[in-house]
Amino acid sequence: RHAPPRAVAAEAAAAAVLGPRWLSLLPPLVTLGASVAMRQVVLAMLLGIWSGALLLNEGNPLIAGMRTFDYYFVGAFISAEHAGVVLFTLLLGGTIGLVQKSGGALGLANLVRGLFTSRRSGSLSTMGLGSLLFFDDYSSILIVGNSLRPLVAAVGLSAAKFAYIAHVMGVVLASLAPLSSWVGLQIGYIGGAYEQLAALPAVGGGAAAALATADPFLGFVRTIPYRFFPLSILAFLIAGALSGKDFGPMLDEEKRAVTIGGGGGVAAMEAEAAEEAEAAAGELDPKPGTPLRAVNALLPFGVVMVTAFCGMVYQGQVAIAALPASQAVEPTLVNCLRFADSVAALIWGSAAGWLASLGCVLGQRLLSLGEAMEAWTAGTKEVLEPVFVLLLAWALGAVIADVGTAEFLASALQGGLPAWSLPALISVICFAISFACGSSFGTCGIVFPLVGPLAWQLSGGDMGFLHQCFGAIFGASTFGNICSPISDTSILTVLATRCDL
Question: Is the pTM of this model over 0.70?
Answer without folding.
Answer: no
